[in-house]
Amino acid sequence: MATRVLPAFGSRRSIHIFERNFYAYRSQWLMFVSGFFEPLFYLLSIGIGLNHLVGPQLVGGRLVSYATFVAPGMLATSAMNGAVIDSIFNPFFRLKISHTYDAVLSTPLDVTDVALGEVWWALSRAALYAASFIVCMVLLGDTTSWWVVLCWPGALLASLAFTCVGLAGCTYVRSWQDFDVVTLVQLPLFLFSGTFFPITLYPRWLGAIVSVSPLYQAAALLRGLATGQFDALMILRAGYLVALGLAGLWLAARRFRAILAP
Amino acid sequence: MTAQGGARDIVLEARGLVKRFGAFEAVRGVDFAIARGECFGFLGPNGAGKTSTMRMISAVSRPTEGSLTIFGLDPRTHGPAIRGRIGVVPQDDSLELELSVRLNIEIYGRYFDLPRRVLRERADELLEFARLTERANSKVDDLSGGMKRRLTIARALVNRPDLLILDEPTTGLDPQARHLLWERLYRLKREGVTLIITTHYMDEAEQLCDRLVVMDNGTIVAEGAPRELIERHSSREVIELRFGTDTPEQIRVALATHAERVEVLPDRVLLYVEDGDVALRAVHGSGLTPVSSLVRRSSLEDVFLRLTGRTLVD
Lengths: 262, 314
Ligand SMILES: Nc1ncnc2c1ncn2[C@@H]1O[C@H](COP(=O)(O)OP(=O)(O)OP(=O)(O)O)[C@@H](O)[C@H]1O
Ligand SMILES: [Mg+2]
Description:
The structure holds two protein chains of two kinds.
Chain A: H1 15-25, H2 29-51, E1 57-59, E2 62-64, H3 66-97, H4 100-104, H5 111-139, H6 151-170, H7 179-192, H8 204-210, H9 214-227, H10 232-260
Antiparallel strand pairs in A: 1-2
Helix pairs in contact in A: 1-5, 2-3, 2-5, 3-5, 3-6, 3-7, 3-9, 5-6, 5-10, 6-9, 6-10, 9-10
Chain B: E1 10-21, E2 24-35, E3 39-43, H1 50-57, E4 65-70, H2 75-83, E5 86-89, H3 101-110, H4 116-129, H5 145-156, E6 163-167, H6 175-190, E7 194-198, H7 202-208, E8 211-216, E9 219-224, H8 226-233, E10 237-242, H9 249-256, E11 261-264, E12 269-273, H10 276-285, E13 292-297, H11 300-308
Parallel strand pairs in B: 3-7, 3-8, 5-6, 6-7
Antiparallel strand pairs in B: 1-2, 1-4, 8-9, 10-12, 10-13, 11-12
Bound molecules: adenosine-5'-triphosphate and magnesium ion.
Magnesium ion binds next to helix 1 of chain B.
């Protein structure tokens, strides 16, 4: 059918969920502004502060300043943190508290459209934040190459993975208390995924575990893009993020159906 | 009108429809066919399976077993096309509480791919119908319960549906709003819209429905036009008698000779009879002296209580 983008993953109608969110958040511009500042604060504090204490780091075969090393990691982290808000916190509210989706499902939209629509919304916000983050990186002199513009699509791949996995995850959240579990996953991911130091410092076995972390893969991918040092591994990293995204989206739609139209 | 026979234009047909939630069977094999332009009612006590059935025939929840065709299409494969032609008033309003009254209608209309320009006009008209024009820009959260209900009903009409499914639409409405809705439903029916309605108000069902089914425990226990059901399951008239104290057993025995059926309730005795006045004279003639007596026509409520019992099951 012409109206189907990818039958299993929702249709063109998913855009109406984006529209709905746009209207719902129109009055909440403060939330948008805070979304810009959070990653910028990271960039300033860790980048500028630690840059003087920590020496240059090896990326690919080249030595770069610590700020250049850490900025892509912060970009990946901000993709993850954004996804927690846009795919776990807010959809949980709509799914289980305000029952927004119940009414939606008696219209031509399907559960797959609801899930996909939330992804469009999360990704468009992520696109804005990533763009402003990259501009800041350039302005702060954290970049060595104009290839850094590729960090924008790269960051979107990271957001895709985090958003879709988060959306699937949000269906398992039973109450606000369960958000402690979300933090419990988020924090070690942030601390151990090689976002602010290279995982070559880990023993081999721990490095192997960390390489499963989407945050690590995203940070490594973005680091390569930011410094213009490409290798074949980056295609695998990108593929991994896309695969996580598709698997997450598929699971999210199935779970939405189980909850909304049992 | 419900023309009988094969010429009926069937909008919706269910055969052996079953809905299970895990091991629990909420709907246990129901059959019905609904014709175009008909108003079809589902009655039944709490938990009978009405909402579960409504959600299947609005192409939202999938039948566990059985066959279902809506507009001649299978909801499993043509869900979006079917839902595009249906209007649904769910039992719970599920409105966007944080958004304005007007946006609630317009955003909902967008789900049907309706252009914004068309939606602005329809929203005006529907707000007028729901008597919410003055509240158009209020947050829904601030509306009263009945206003929310009216908004939910207005919202269901935004896509000009061919089939309107209303799950207890008038619960929480004041009499004015109830009558306004009835008028609107009559008008829609005249325009050929098919109506499916559940209600706990028997007078409403009697007023609105051409045909109805009574559900109990997930099955259909009776089907027919309201008058047919009354004729089939109750007497023509009912006498309600009150005796000052508890009704002794001997009164019950004495009354039994005057009626087709006697029902003793804590506060009164019901006699189901063909001719109320004649029977009442006979009661007085046999020396019984009720404190008060009332003769009335049998109603759908009598049928309902007869079929589904007077005790609360759950
Ligand atoms: N999602 C669900 N999971 C498990 N059981 C359910 C679910 N939905 C409904 N039920 C059960 O199915 C039965 C029928 O429920 P339903 O809502 O269809 O009743 P109803 O006739 O609409 O009742 P009411 O008049 O109170 O609205 C009930 O026992 C209910 O608990
Ligand atoms: Mg119900």
